[in-house]
Design brief:
With 375 residues, this protein is an alpha/beta fold. The protein has a seven-stranded parallel beta sheet with strand order 3-2-1-4-5-6-10, sandwiched between helices. α1 packs across α6.
Length: 375
């Protein structure tokens, strides 16, 4: 690494998957001195075993962000949260970074900025963005805010766009295993489209490079694993770990997303047993129900009863929702390329897919998410 690299790096979102692993690798290698920004150290159990310089506070509080930024040479912004965190929190971090003259601001975005069906030319970063879901709109708005600070305030910013991040502690990984176990996922049209994955340590390598390479400022980079992996391979590999089979369906068999209906969807939510028991503890709700005439009471009871599953030829028929994340993702036909990161930053993605899955399986068994005895 260059001797000009920053030393102390403020890491927002340090209790999450990427932030936690980033702080671990920084602490283990000594390449950087991480300062994790957290609400409370109790939520940072993964990294409290290291003697790190923690900063506690709220991203929406300008004073606490300013204190956390004091003495830092660079920032990696990974924080996620509600609307206020994503907008005002980012603004506070950017403002403090300018005031403290940090040398580099690395912002982690997402390929979600291309929408649920990215255009073919989004293989590279030059493609026009067109988000169609709230998360994608939020990430694109953040990117624009970050780039404005470069144009207007001269802040050296770098934007990284990862796809699905997998590996130990990853919500993608745990969610995939649990979804397969609950039989809520299927391979659609053979699962032939690319899954777009990046192993968490490969993303950490890209962040390290973005922090010090002189070619990085002002650039946007895809950060993906170089080996294309289909949804079929990804899902069947996870299914093998879970010891389950995954059905195959045609896209025409999927249940389309239902249009939200206020009364119907509210009553369905009330059908949950825990919700019913909680409502029954509220005196006002109990009294309201007692005041209803008997026919109305019976109608409410009937609505709240769970309907029996539809049977087909004597067996339960499973139908799969088109808007489930692991099914909707299979419609994405583009494999985003990290060639630009390889060319300008020297990104190597050192962990292959096979090695990443081996490490992921070892963690799943250690965490007892998978049965250790079947290893």
């Amino acid at each position: 690494m260059s001797p000009e690299r920053p030393r102390r790096v403020l890491v927002t979102g340090a209790t999450g998957l990427i932030g936690g692993r980033l702080c671990e690798v920084m602490a283990l290698t000594g390449a950087f001195e991480p300062r994790p920004f957290v609400h409370a150290t109790g939520s940072a159990w993964r990294i409290t075993r290291f003697p790190l310089d923690f900063a506690s506070g709220d991203l929406c509080d300008r004073a606490s962000v300013d204190r956390a930024m004091d003495g830092c040479d660079a920032v990696v912004h990974l924080a996620r949260g509600d609307h206020a965190v994503m907008r005002r929190g980012l603004e506070n971090v950017l403002r403090a970074a300018v005031m403290h003259r940090v040398s580099r601001f690395v912002h982690i975005s997402s390929v979600a900025v291309y929408g649920s069906q990215p255009p073919p030319h989004s293989v590279s970063e030059a493609a026009a963005t067109r988000p169609d879901l709230p998360y994608g709109h939020t990430k694109l708005e953040q990117e624009r805010r970050v780039l404005r600070y470069r144009r207007r305030r001269g802040l050296d910013v770098v934007i990284l766009r990862p796809p699905n991040v997998y590996g130990p502690f990853a919500s993608f990984t745990v969610g995939m295993v649990n979804t397969i176990r609950s039989h809520d996922v299927a391979l659609v049209d053979g699962g032939r489209n690319p899954c777009n994955l990046v192993y968490v340590d490969n993303l950490v390598e890209a962040i390290f490079l973005a922090l010090w390479r002189p070619e990085a400022p002002g650039q946007v980079f895809h950060v993906t694993d170089p080996e294309p992996v289909s949804w079929e391979r990804c899902i069947t590999d996870h299914a093998a770990l879970a010891g389950a089979d995954v059905p195959r369906v045609a896209a025409a068999e999927l249940v389309p997303p239902a249009r939200e209906r206020l009364w119907r969807d509210s009553l369905r939510a009330l059908a949950d047993g825990e919700v019913q028991r909680s409502l029954a503890c509220i005196p006002l709700v109990r009294r309201w129900f007692q005041w209803l005439p008997e026919p109305a009471k019976q109608a409410v009871r009937a609505r709240l009863r769970r309907s029996e599953p539809v049977r087909h030829n004597g067996s339960l028929e499973r139908r799969f929702r088109a808007d489930h994340p692991f099914i909707a993702g299979q419609k994405r036909m583009v494999a985003h390329s990290s060639e630009k990161a390889r060319r300008l930053l020297g990104y190597t993605a050192p962990v292959s897919y096979d090695e990443g899955m081996r490490l992921t399986e070892a963690w799943l068994r250690q965490a007892q998410i998978l049965d250790v005895s079947s290893a």
